[in-house]
Amino acid sequence: MTETEVPGPEPDWEPAVQLPYYTGKNPAYQYSVWAHSAPLFQMIGALKLPVQPVAQRLRLHVERSWDGLDDLDVVLFGLKGFSFAISKHDSNPLGLSFVWLTQAHEQADKALDTLLEVVGIGEAAVAFRGDAHGDRAEPTATSPDADSPGEVSGATLLTSLWARLRRAAGTTSATR
């Protein structure tokens, strides 16, 4: 078999994973498996803990990935008939891990309850149930200023997601 030599990148091409996409001279942009798959997932809530303790309890391997927000830890696994993903972005100011179903299911509350039971943690570990991206997220605990906007100075499109998550979790500060 004859080897084909591929030339190196053009000197003015930026890395393919560099944001914002489509703005440089590199004709390619790279996305992660997580960024490609996650839009299909159904968010069912958030936990007030990192991914690692859940992964350790279930003997899962934590994978590193990235998306348009940041680098993140993620595990994907099946449990008692449900297909789960748990993710946590490095820059998440609340330190929440998001719980997803990788296949939409009508019994999202039952799925989250199953996860809590098997992992051996209670409702106190749940920041909210539902989807923080819509109006369905229900905080499990309230805060006196849960209705405040939770914006930080210099807020951008990326931080507005974190502000929505603060509201969904019933807090407006990363220190609470």
Task: Describe the protein's topology.
Blueprint: H1 33-37, E1 42-47, H2 51-58, E2 63-66, E3 71-79, E4 82-89, E5 97-101, H3 108-119, E6 126-129, E7 138-139, H4 157-169
Antiparallel strand pairs: 1-5, 1-6, 2-3, 3-4, 4-5, 6-7
Q: Would you kindly provide a written description of the structure presented here, covering whatever features stand out?
A:
With 176 residues, the protein is an alpha+beta fold. The protein is 22% helix and 22% strand. It is built from four helices and seven strands, in the order αβαββββαββα. It has helices at 33-37, 51-58, 108-119, 157-169, and strands at residues 42-47, 63-66, 71-79, 82-89, 97-101, 126-129, 138-139. Strands 2-3-4-5-1-6-7 form a seven-stranded antiparallel beta sheet, with helices on both faces. The radius of gyration is 19 Å and the shape is elongated. 23% of the residues are buried. The model is unreliable at 135-160 (pLDDT under 50).
How would you briefly describe this protein structure?
This protein is 22% helix and 22% strand. It is built from four helices and seven strands, in the order H-E-H-E-E-E-E-H-E-E-H.
**Integer average pLDDT:** 80
Provide the succession of SSEs: HEHEEEEHEEH
What general form does the structure show? Answer: elongated
Radius of gyration: 19 Å
Strands of the widest sheet, in order across it, are 2-3-4-5-1-6-7
Unreliable segments of 5+ consecutive residues: 135-160
The helix/strand class is alpha+beta
The helical percent reads 10-25%
Question: For this entry, what is the oligomeric state of its chains?
Answer: single chain
Total helical elements: 4
**N→C terminal distance:** 62 Å
Largest sheet: 7 strands, antiparallel
User: How many β-strand stretches?
Assistant: 7
Percent of residues in beta strands: 15-25%
